[in-house]
Specification:
alpha+beta; disordered C terminus; single chain; about 45% helix; 5 strands; five-stranded antiparallel sheet
């Protein structure tokens, strides 16, 4: 898999480690160019390389790096932690023209401590949540088969999240899909990759393997949302 991404440089991880110790504007601002050159630029190359692979199995998820890559600045408005900067770099890939959290997508982040990989529908709005739950009433067996795929289980494990303790309002308590319906989002999340891999070109093919394994789940979660979009585009935020 020849790409323009050969790994994050050691200087990039050194920068993130130092940022964790000096998470303030006075330290960051004079070193912003170092961040741009050793952390953000490699991430842009990685996103471009991922896009070249997404064309092969999920072309509608190709995402401009400027939109895919998260800002280094933290949103501290509702957090007790007021440190201004993230100590990792992350990117997400969503369907063309879809807003985040209205459709399922793919995600990964890189830091000196770990590599995170995720995919699915995260914190959907009430309309999207109901659409998927209603879909599961008739198609839960299909989802169970997807989640039982040996490759997917090996690479990504099972569904993550904090499901409701009771059935959602309007859904039957005795339905065989209740365990799946109680989820507030449907996410696969894994952190088992060796973080040292991020300094090598091996990172990309390992991420691609996980994205490919999750693609059937992403397609499954999209189906009820596509129908909802056709009925009333305003309900999915488009």
């Amino acid at each position: 898999m020849a790409t323009g991404f050969s790994g994050f440089p050691k200087q990039g991880f050194a920068f993130l480690k130092e940022l964790a110790k000096n998470n303030n504007r006075d330290w960051f601002q004079p070193r912003k160019d170092t961040f741009e050159d050793t952390v953000k630029a490699p991430m842009e190359a990685l996103v471009e390389a991922m896009n070249a692979q997404l064309v092969k199995f999920a072309p509608s998820y190709v995402t401009d790096p400027n939109k895919a890559i998260y800002r280094i600045y933290r949103d501290t408005r509702f957090s007790k932690d007021k440190t201004p900067y993230k100590t990792h770099i992350a990117a997400s890939f969503f369907r063309s023209a879809a807003e985040k959290h209205t459709h399922p997508g793919y995600y990964f982040s890189v830091s000196p401590e770990r590599i995170e990989v995720a995919g699915g529908l995260y914190l959907p709005g009430p309309d999207q949540l109901r659409a998927v739950r209603e879909h599961l009433l008739e198609h839960h067996t299909e989802l169970r088969k997807l989640l039982a795929n040996p490759t997917l289980k090996k690479l990504m494990g099972g569904l993550s999240g904090d499901p409701l303790t009771r059935p959602p309002k309007g859904f039957p308590a005795a339905h065989p899909a209740l365990d799946l319906i109680r989820y507030k989002g449907w996410i696969l999340y894994d952190t088992r990759m060796d973080p040292q891999m991020a300094a090598t070109g091996r990172l990309l093919p390992e991420l691609v393997k996980r994205f490919q394994a999750m693609a059937p789940l992403i397609d499954f979660l999209n189906r009820p949302l596509n129908v909802k979009k056709q009925r009333d585009p305003l309900t999915v935020g488009l």
